[in-house]
Design a protein that fits this description.
The protein has helices at 33-43, 57-64, 84-88, 112-122, 177-184, 195-204, 224-240, and strands at residues 2-7, 27-28, 31-32, 49-53, 67-68, 71-77, 99-103, 106-110, 126-132, 142-146, 152-157, 166-174, 209-213, 216-220. By secondary structure, it is of the alpha/beta class.
Length: 255
Amino acid sequence: MDAVILAAGQGTRLRPLTDDKPKGMVEVAGKPILTHCFERLIELGASGLHVVVGYKKQAIINYYEDEFEGVPITYTHQREQKGLAHALLTVEEHIDDDFMLMLGDNIFEANLQDVVNRQREERADAAFLVEEVPWDEASRYGVCDTNKYGEITNVVEKPDDPPSNLVMTGFYTFSPAIFHACHLVQPSDRGEYEISDAVDLLLQSGRTIDAIRMNGWRTDVGYPEDRDAAEERLQGEAETEPVQSGVSTTSSGGE
């Protein structure tokens, strides 16, 4: 399964950390956020990495070049920042089977393998990781509306009045059907083509979509304080890992 990583954004909320670099190159625990993303995706069996770049794209291309740990990298360019569905369409010609999608500003220590397994076993059109967040934070995300049975019935992007506090986390698996949905998406009130609207179109058309509750943690590195929180978590895990014979742990963090 190939993997798509969306890394074209300007990271305006992360300034001053992104004054001279794209947010995917901001370091957390000694390495860029994108390195954390790539490592997790390769652990999940990614056979190719398709990176959507935009703002200060050359910094990413020069750093990683054409492969990471032996896995080939393809770059596509989102020339205008028109939303995640718009960004995803830049890789359409490179994808012909099920694939993973990760937002390139998230750091995960969670059950991503469960999402991949569900996609492979059920042949769903989409599966994604969801989590409950504090109600006052839900409006920052794509919010999942549910029926009385707890089934997801639609997804709303950054609503002013969230229908629930169950949100999408930034890790998905899709069949190529998502590209058709992205082509049908209309600009939101924010003027962007939202990935949540594409997912909602799949739901409304009767496609099979599975939502997996998150077990573990993730940090959406949207603000400088989020970067600090992710670093503390990674370093804390590194410090508490059991010491194996001939191996010492450090506090420098890592997957």
